[in-house]
Amino acid sequence: MKSNRFSQEEYSLLLDTHNSRLLGLSQSECEQILIGAGATREQAKNGAYVYLHHGANITSSRRGSRSLYDRILNDFNAKTKAPKDCIRHLEKIEFGYRQAQTAVYNYRKRNGLIGQ
Question: Taking the complete model, does pTM exceed 0.70, yes or no?
């Protein structure tokens, strides 16, 4: 079985074309749209989740350096917070979801917080 590869932007565009947010579609309904377009079940699950839970914060034109992320996360007291809270904090200040996710992972790894 051949699977298509899509970017999150393509998933979002497809779901926006179907007015998924406007109609209040559920995650499983969004998954069915993506599967109908050729995504695997796992791709559809991940694409629909990010679309529904991270909305417009998928991409960002804002860029951050390691030192900027470290300063922001230190000021947020990230060493004592859950990774999801740190990601949400970065999203609130206009970093994209994937940017925030990567920045938090790298921060936690550098500070010995992975696996704790």
Answer: no
